[in-house]
Specification:
The protein is an alpha+beta fold. It contains three helices and ten strands; from the N terminus they run H-E-E-E-E-E-H-E-E-E-E-H-E. The radius of gyration is 19 Å and the shape is elongated.
Length: 158
């Protein structure tokens, strides 16, 4: 490669913006990095409930009546479909493979994706206010908090 071509590459490389692989989007939650959120939604709440029959955490991002919520709860041996019905009032379709995860259930009304984590926790990703079409993109953007670790990630190394 001649010196003129190297100078061209340096010029082009100088205009590139670095990608921040650990920040932005939805941050980190329950062993997952949320790499994509619909435009305009911002963190609204993080809720933890411990004790009683349920031990769960949820985080919601919202804007203008639209919201995305990620919920994580230990299933304590309960089947995933029963947990979704009893705790989240969701009726689930049969599981289908998505983004490397073998068993992801879509809710019958299309407002949620539900899966079982690698350590026995249940995850639900729900959308409201017309964001149901964004669920697949948000799900595809979920990655393990620490690359190479088996976490609660719905997909990725494992």
């Amino acid at each position: 490669m001649g010196s003129n071509h190297i100078d061209d590459l340096r010029f082009i490389a100088g205009k590139l913006k670095p990608v921040n692989l650990t920040g932005a989007a939805g941050g980190h939650f329950e062993g997952l990095r949320i790499g994509y959120l619909p435009q305009g939604v911002t963190l609204w709440s993080t809720y933890t409930s411990q004790g009683g029959e349920r031990d769960y955490r949820s985080r919601t991002w919202r804007a203008d009546g639209k919201s995305i919520t990620l919920t994580a709860e230990w299933l304590h041996g309960r089947p995933l479909t029963r947990w979704a019905r009893q705790s989240l009032d969701l009726r689930l379709e049969s599981p289908t493979p998505m983004h490397g995860e073998a068993a992801v259930h879509r809710s019958e009304d299309g407002s949620a994706l539900v899966w079982k984590g690698r350590h026995g926790e249940g995850y639900a990703l729900t959308a409201a206010g017309g964001l149901g079409d964004e669920l697949d993109r948000v799900f595809a953007g979920l990655t393990p908090d620490v690359p190479g670790q088996l976490g609660g990630s719905p997909h990725g190394p494992g």
